[in-house]
Amino acid sequence: MSSCLGCAADVALEDTFCARCGAPVSDPFVGAIVGERYRIVSRIGIGGMPFLLPLLYQIGLGFSPVQSGLLIVPQSVAAMALRPAMPRILRQLGYRRVLVSNTLLLGALIAAFGLVGVGTPTAVIVAMAFCFGAMSSFQYTSMNTLAYADVPLDQTSMTSTLTSTAQQLSMSFGVAAASLSAVFFIPHHVHAGAPEIIRGIHRACLTLGALTAASTLVFRTLESNDGATISQHNIAMAGQANEARLLSSTTD
Q1: Where would I find the H helices in 113-193?
Q2: Residues 63, 61: Cα–Cα separation, whole Å
Q3: Which CATH superfamily is domain 38-149+159-220 in?
Q4: Cα(76)–Cα(80) distance, rounded to whole angstroms?
Q5: Among candidates 174, 167, 111, 98, which has minimal Cα distance to 139?
Q6: pLDDT tens across 89-117, in order?
Q7: Tens digit of each residue's pLDDT (9 = 90 or more) over 164-195
Q8: Domain definitions of the chain by residue range
């Protein structure tokens, strides 16, 4: 038995709708899979950067809105450029290794934005934005596809609803965390100058980077074969094992 979210009535596990209020009933199996693999906390840092970066570029570094927007473009370019390579990377490494390593790198890169100052060359900022776009796109794609792995075909629509809601929540929490961090670290008095603002944004970036890196712990609970139905990582590993076995037998 499970409980209806609308009226709290007891509902049988095989029922799709509540007999009392007619509200749809979520599948506990789907909820467990999505809840275990789609970690909102790991996306708070990524979701907060679209708030902090324009603030850093325009108010801290003195770029115009057009220049600030152009510095965001490399993120989109990197996200599109990495798309063709994502399936091959997931096939070779698997979801667990990809998410653990990529989350750590993302946390370090977000914290590295805390070192960007007035004297930082524009080329370095562009390179950092490109890397951030590639890593964040890889993170989004990996988490979104992992949420669908091992879910029955007749439950994909419910999974899509849950993941879409979780994605919107992660974006909202990310902006909220970034704004709260900025308010906390930036001086409250009206005449705060660019150095104080830059220092506050730097500390906010360091905070979000540390939060992102710490969220790596939630992905360490994944099994090496989780999501293998989509990534085909188990097939790749079996092929590598066969190649190694043939090579050893040939050598002998």
Answers
A1: 122-148, 156-185
A2: 6
A3: MFS general substrate transporter like domains (1.20.1250.20)
A4: 6
A5: 98
A6: 888 888 888 888 998 999 999 999 999 98
A7: 777 777 788 888 888 888 888 887 655 667 77
A8: 1-26, 38-149+159-220
